[in-house]
Design brief:
401 residues, alpha/beta, Molybdenum Cofactor Biosythetic Enzyme, Chain A, 2 domains, 4-stranded antiparallel β-sheet, 13 helices, 15 strands
């Protein structure tokens, strides 16, 4: 498609135009309670996968030195033949997130995951350990988005209610999953506490394998007994431990109908030492020119360092054509932005380095950085007012004529 016209003096820019049981407590199940048989192909079979450097001790209780088999990958998309995931949402569950005890790292990792795989993450929502909140949010998200993940609330304690709440949300009962219990027993059988459990402790232990009865159970790691539980073909349940969440999300990738590689986005970042208020009018006009071409323009200041201008567009293929009919790519726009704001394209590593430098500087001299932040805010505010007055004047002039 042709790019919108522009009055910029730059040669290129000039021509560019995301069960039913009411009670959450699970009663003790006698030995004759209903147990779902696991798939016969899922047999225990030693490898150590690369764990996240943080929380290695956290995932020891769920990962194993024994090796389990991975679930077979289905031939057809859960969304329907020929369909792929376009939109996603994350439901983060836990009082500890809302009261500040725990820092949520999972939604950030999921956002990066979606971006890298060409999925538009449309919503991230945090809810308390309340059945009614989980039920309402999960139903709404499944209705509105192609891929939904939940994080947290699947452990053995009284406040781990995710499986039960989701079962209620989608009209299902809760049943113990045989293959998951077998994997749990296989992993824990050498632990000294296993044979000394009383009935209540054993009930809590097996609670971690109590799933909605019609859910898919997907084993994504050879050294992880806990599966990804999927409901309605699109809602996937994950643990809240960041290292395990990341490992399992990565392992789920082959099971997802992802967009084609040529539809995935590219992000280029241009760094400038100019104040954000100076480049703000230019970025506004740039976004207005490129918005119809699917290019997103963002501005992200790092106090005491400068500003990162983010350009997001297609990774492969042109974003449009210039006035001469020549195809224009996102890298062409980045070169023009470099000239316009006296900046340069930087890598993700360089972005991280500058942010770390700013963090260290703020730690050493917080008063100076606070003053710089206030000054930057004033400059941006003034620039916004100037731009608004200019727009109003142009609007009035257009109507007067």
């Amino acid at each position: 498609m042709p790019l919108p016209s522009s009055s910029s003096s730059r040669p290129l820019l000039n021509s560019l135009k995301t069960n039913p049981a009411r009670s959450i407590h699970v009663p003790h199940f006698p030995r004759h309670s209903r147990v779902l048989p696991g798939p016969p192909s899922l047999v225990a079979s030693t490898t150590n996968s690369n764990a996240h450097p943080h929380s290695v001790s956290q995932i020891r209780s769920i990962t194993s030195s024994a090796t389990f088999s991975i679930s077979p990958i289905p031939c057809n998309s859960a969304l329907g033949e020929g369909k792929c995931i376009r939109t996603a949402a994350a439901l983060i569950i836990g009082d500890e997130i809302l009261n500040g005890k725990t820092l949520d790292r999972n939604s950030n990792y999921f956002a990066k995951y979606c971006f890298e795989n060409g999925i538009k993450l449309k919503r991230i929502e945090v809810v308390a350990d309340k059945e009614e909140e989980i039920v309402e949010a999960s139903r709404r998200m499944v209705r509105e988005y192609d891929f939904v993940i939940t994080s947290g609330g699947i452990g053995p304690t009284h406040d781990d209610i995710t499986y039960a709440a989701l079962a209620k949300a989608f009209g299902q009962g809760l049943v113990h999953h045989g293959e998951t219990i077998r994997r749990m027993d296989e992993m824990y059988r050498h632990r000294p506490w296993v044979n000394s459990q009383n009935s209540q402790q054993e009930e809590a232990f097996r609670r971690m394998a109590l799933f909605p009865e019609h859910a898919e159970v997907i084993y994504v790691g050879r050294d992880i007994w806990v599966p990804v539980v999927r409901l309605e073909g699109k809602l996937c349940v994950f643990p809240g431990i960041p290292a395990l969440f990341q490992k399992m999300l990565d392992g789920l990738k082959p099971f997802l109908p992802l967009p084609p590689r040529d539809e995935r986005p590219l992000r280029l970042q241009v760094f400038t030492e100019r104040p954000e208020s100076i480049i703000a009018p230019y970025l506004t006009s740039l976004q207005s020119r490129l918005g119809s071409c699917g290019v997103q323009v963002g501005s992200y200041p790092v106090i005491g360092q400068g500003v990162f201008v983010s350009l997001i567009g297609r990774e492969n293929g042109p974003i449009g054509k210039d006035g001469t009919g020549r195809e224009v790519y996102l890298r062409d726009i980045a070169r023009e932005v470099e000239l316009e704001i006296a900046g340069q394209v930087v890598t993700e590593e360089e972005v991280a380095k500058k942010k770390e430098e700013a963090r260290v500087r703020a730690t050493r001299n917080p008063s100076t950085m606070a003053a710089a932040q206030v000054g930057a805010g004033i400059n941006v505010s003034i620039a916004a007012q100037v731009h608004r007055h200019q727009s109003q004047a142009q609007h009035h002039q257009a109507h007067s004529s």
